[in-house]
């Protein structure tokens, strides 16, 4: 038995649009059936009050189905669909984007990156995701046991560095900037000006405005004997200008200080420590 | 193929089912109006208005004349499919969790939740003549289940037994002549959310929160196959034409907001029936899949999700061309 599919015979605009049609502003909807295709064109205003033309193309299919199914095709709609026109109502029925089946083999299954990533995340969240900036331990920086001891801090840092170098020994695929290679040892020294080899002076910047010489002394005395200490000050206020120079007695101490203090948080600021540049013709 | 998206529900889908010929697709959701759709073009035939709350379950008889639904408003309702009229309403003591017509549709069974001081109950009613008298009819058989509540149910072969899946993972086979337990097994460790029969009714597949789906023999309850995933399985269906199983699930609804769609693993997963190995997946939903159904012709399937959408997906030719590689040794 032949049955006509219940495709849309007529799609009319909703009552809201009909009001607008009454105003004569919009062309009437049209419907063309040709070559087994039905093209329904309607016009309406969009949210920006612009005229929009909507063209829907339906394919009319004829299918041979069993008697029971054909009979059910003649049923009229009921419930909330009672007032729907024949054919799918765009409010309830839509065609979604193409979705294809992804075929997988059991081998791929065991090493899916998807899962690997997930597991990595899981592990991380189950262990510790925060790290002390001072000693790299698994506690917050503010509750670090080495918080107030500069010497201990240095030691902790060295320990962490050693551990860092060990872990670096295992080859990784990640790109490492040249000055960060070898566990970041070249961090300060890499930028060392060639002419300054014999100078053990460092420049500390991004200091707090309220820093005084005593603070600076506290900060650096753990690294070794200091020859000279200069804290730049505003003449009028006597406040710190934000940077200071420290001359160590030994170059090795200075290098250690740069390694330790560069990036170190002090008085809510992150210190920037580098080799002092030689004075330029002044 | 482009799937059809059916947006007839305002809340999460609870169960979807095709009728025997597959021209109609029924969907129930946590809103109060079950829907019926023409499966071919996704046109909505109608809604069944009358329930006062969640509709947990539905079933259609083999002739597509009546629909039975059960819901959280403590009622089990029978509907006329041609007109969408509510023929009879059976008042129950607590919400109705599962309801099924027997194959012949001479009887129907429904189970109620253990709630409001009432135990979980299984009731079997006579549905040979469906009219208003069913509302007041006393069930022909009724028994209480004291330990764990029923969360899914299927009829056994020749309508002689009833198989219930329980919250604790038990499967119990009941003799319908006496209402006595024939046998009970516990192969799952968590709730059995869904059970679906194979085309000929000799096997059925269970979907459980313990992240597995299992295939059982309907008469002996012998465990035949097991399909393992890494997420709760909410629904599983057997292909009527191929040795394929589709599993749907995902994280619990309450945990969904903490995961992205990709992590949540909301795709439908296809396993080989015999080799128990996954061979494909289809994405689509952005919430867990709550219910799955194969079209009786095996050329498409439908899924209903926690996101409130029903998606009808026809298979591409590549699905039918796919062969499972295995060693014949």
From TrEMBL, chain A:
<dbReference type="GO" id="GO:0001732">
    <property type="term" value="P:formation of cytoplasmic translation initiation complex"/>
</dbReference>
<dbReference type="Pfam" id="PF00076">
    <property type="entry name" value="RRM_1"/>
</dbReference>
<dbReference type="GO" id="GO:0003723">
    <property type="term" value="F:RNA binding"/>
</dbReference>
<dbReference type="GO" id="GO:0033290">
    <property type="term" value="C:eukaryotic 48S preinitiation complex"/>
</dbReference>
<dbReference type="InterPro" id="IPR034240">
    <property type="entry name" value="eIF3G_RRM"/>
</dbReference>
<keyword id="KW-0694">RNA-binding</keyword>
<dbReference type="GO" id="GO:0016282">
    <property type="term" value="C:eukaryotic 43S preinitiation complex"/>
</dbReference>
<dbReference type="InterPro" id="IPR024675">
    <property type="entry name" value="eIF3g_N"/>
</dbReference>
<keyword id="KW-0396">Initiation factor</keyword>
<protein>
    <recommendedName>
        <fullName>Eukaryotic translation initiation factor 3 subunit G</fullName>
    </recommendedName>
</protein>
<feature type="domain" description="RRM">
    <location>
        <begin position="200"/>
        <end position="278"/>
    </location>
</feature>
<dbReference type="GO" id="GO:0003743">
    <property type="term" value="F:translation initiation factor activity"/>
</dbReference>
<dbReference type="InterPro" id="IPR000504">
    <property type="entry name" value="RRM_dom"/>
</dbReference>
<keyword id="KW-0648">Protein biosynthesis</keyword>
<dbReference type="InterPro" id="IPR012677">
    <property type="entry name" value="Nucleotide-bd_a/b_plait_sf"/>
</dbReference>
<dbReference type="Pfam" id="PF12353">
    <property type="entry name" value="eIF3g"/>
</dbReference>
<dbReference type="GO" id="GO:0005852">
    <property type="term" value="C:eukaryotic translation initiation factor 3 complex"/>
</dbReference>
<comment type="function">
    <text>RNA-binding component of the eukaryotic translation initiation factor 3 (eIF-3) complex, which is involved in protein synthesis of a specialized repertoire of mRNAs and, together with other initiation factors, stimulates binding of mRNA and methionyl-tRNAi to the 40S ribosome. The eIF-3 complex specifically targets and initiates translation of a subset of mRNAs involved in cell proliferation. This subunit can bind 18S rRNA.</text>
</comment>
<comment type="subunit">
    <text>Component of the eukaryotic translation initiation factor 3 (eIF-3) complex.</text>
</comment>
<dbReference type="InterPro" id="IPR035979">
    <property type="entry name" value="RBD_domain_sf"/>
</dbReference>
<dbReference type="InterPro" id="IPR017334">
    <property type="entry name" value="eIF3_g"/>
</dbReference>
<keyword id="KW-0963">Cytoplasm</keyword>
TrEMBL record, chain B:
<dbReference type="GO" id="GO:0016282">
    <property type="term" value="C:eukaryotic 43S preinitiation complex"/>
</dbReference>
<dbReference type="GO" id="GO:0071541">
    <property type="term" value="C:eukaryotic translation initiation factor 3 complex, eIF3m"/>
</dbReference>
<feature type="repeat" description="WD">
    <location>
        <begin position="6"/>
        <end position="37"/>
    </location>
</feature>
<feature type="repeat" description="WD">
    <location>
        <begin position="48"/>
        <end position="89"/>
    </location>
</feature>
<dbReference type="InterPro" id="IPR015943">
    <property type="entry name" value="WD40/YVTN_repeat-like_dom_sf"/>
</dbReference>
<dbReference type="GO" id="GO:0003743">
    <property type="term" value="F:translation initiation factor activity"/>
</dbReference>
<feature type="repeat" description="WD">
    <location>
        <begin position="282"/>
        <end position="312"/>
    </location>
</feature>
<dbReference type="InterPro" id="IPR019775">
    <property type="entry name" value="WD40_repeat_CS"/>
</dbReference>
<keyword id="KW-0853">WD repeat</keyword>
<keyword id="KW-0677">Repeat</keyword>
<dbReference type="GO" id="GO:0033290">
    <property type="term" value="C:eukaryotic 48S preinitiation complex"/>
</dbReference>
<keyword id="KW-0963">Cytoplasm</keyword>
<dbReference type="GO" id="GO:0003723">
    <property type="term" value="F:RNA binding"/>
</dbReference>
<comment type="subunit">
    <text>Component of the eukaryotic translation initiation factor 3 (eIF-3) complex.</text>
</comment>
<feature type="repeat" description="WD">
    <location>
        <begin position="185"/>
        <end position="226"/>
    </location>
</feature>
<dbReference type="InterPro" id="IPR027525">
    <property type="entry name" value="eIF3i"/>
</dbReference>
<dbReference type="GO" id="GO:0001732">
    <property type="term" value="P:formation of cytoplasmic translation initiation complex"/>
</dbReference>
<dbReference type="Pfam" id="PF24805">
    <property type="entry name" value="EIF3I"/>
</dbReference>
<keyword id="KW-0396">Initiation factor</keyword>
<comment type="similarity">
    <text>Belongs to the eIF-3 subunit I family.</text>
</comment>
<protein>
    <recommendedName>
        <fullName>Eukaryotic translation initiation factor 3 subunit I</fullName>
    </recommendedName>
</protein>
<keyword id="KW-0648">Protein biosynthesis</keyword>
């Amino acid at each position: 038995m032949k049955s006509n599919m219940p495709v849309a015979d007529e799609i009319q605009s909703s009552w809201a649009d009909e009001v607008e049609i009454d105003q004569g502003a919009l062309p009437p909807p049209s419907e063309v059936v040709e070559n087994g295709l039905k093209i329904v064109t309607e016009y309406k205003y969009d949210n920006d009050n612009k005229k929009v033309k909507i063209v829907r193309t339906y394919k009319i299919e004829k299918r041979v189905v069993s008697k029971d199914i054909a009979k059910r095709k003649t049923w009229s709609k009921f419930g909330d669909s009672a007032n729907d026109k024949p054919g799918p109502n765009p409010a309830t029925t839509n065609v979604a984007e193409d979705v294809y089946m992804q075929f997988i083999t059991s081998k791929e299954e065991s090493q899916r990156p998807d899962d690997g990533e997930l597991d990595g995340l899981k592990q991380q969240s189950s262990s510790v995701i925060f790290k002390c900036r001072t000693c790299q331990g698994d506690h917050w920086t503010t509750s670090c046991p080495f918080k107030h001891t500069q010497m201990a801090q240095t030691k902790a840092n060295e320990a962490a560095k050693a551990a860092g170098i060990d872990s670096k020994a295992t080859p990784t695929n990640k790109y490492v900037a040249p000055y960060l290679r070898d566990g970041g040892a070249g961090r300060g020294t890499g930028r060392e000006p060639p002419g300054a080899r014999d100078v053990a002076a460092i420049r500390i910047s991004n200091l707090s405005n309220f820093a005084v010489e005593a603070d600076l002394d506290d900060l650096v005395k753990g690294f070794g004997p200091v020859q000279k200490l200069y804290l730049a000050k505003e003449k009028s206020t006597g406040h710190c200008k934000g940077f200071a120079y420290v001359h160590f007695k030994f170059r090795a101490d200075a290098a250690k200080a740069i390694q330790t203090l560069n990036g170190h948080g002090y008085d809510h600021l992150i210190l920037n420590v580098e080799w002092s540049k030689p004075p330029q013709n002044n | 193929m482009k799937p059809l998206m059916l947006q007839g529900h305002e809340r999460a889908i609870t169960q979807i089912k095709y009728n025997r010929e597959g021209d109609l697709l029924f969907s129930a959701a946590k809103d109060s109006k079950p829907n019926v759709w023409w499966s071919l073009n996704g046109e909505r035939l109608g809604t069944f208005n009358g329930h006062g709350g969640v509709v947990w379950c539905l079933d259609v008889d083999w002739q597509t004349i009546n629909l039975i639904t059960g819901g959280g408003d403590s009622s089990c309702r029978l509907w006329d499919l041609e007109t969408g009229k509510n023929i009879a309403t059976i008042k129950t003591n607590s919400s109705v969790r599962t309801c099924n017509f027997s194959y012949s549709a001479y009887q129907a069974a429904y189970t109620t939740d253990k709630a409001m001081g009432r135990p979980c109950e299984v009731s079997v009613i006579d549905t040979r003549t469906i009219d208003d008298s069913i509302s007041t009819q006393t069930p022909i058989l009724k028994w209480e289940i004291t330990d764990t509540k029923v969360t899914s149910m299927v009829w056994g072969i020749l309508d002689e037994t009833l198989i219930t899946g329980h919250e604790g993972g038990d499967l119990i086979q009941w003799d319908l002549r006496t209402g006595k337990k024939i046998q009970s097994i516990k192969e799952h460790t968590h709730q059995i959310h869904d059970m679906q029969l194979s085309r000929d009714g000799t096997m059925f597949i269970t979907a459980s929160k313990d992240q597995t789906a299992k295939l059982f023999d309907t008469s002996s309850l012998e465990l035949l196959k097991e399909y393992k995933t890494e997420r709760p399985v909410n629904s599983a269906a057997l292909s009527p034409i191929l040795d394929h199983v589709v599993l749907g699930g995902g994280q619990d609804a309450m945990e969904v907001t903490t995961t992205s769609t990709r992590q949540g693993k909301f795709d439908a997963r296809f396993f080989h029936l015999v080799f128990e190995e996954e061979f494909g997946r289809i994405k689509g939903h952005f919430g867990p899949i709550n219910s799955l159904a194969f079209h009786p012709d095996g050329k498409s399937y439908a899924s209903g999700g926690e996101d409130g959408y029903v998606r009808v997906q026809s298979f591409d030719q590549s699905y039918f061309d796919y062969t499972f590689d295995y060693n014949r040794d």
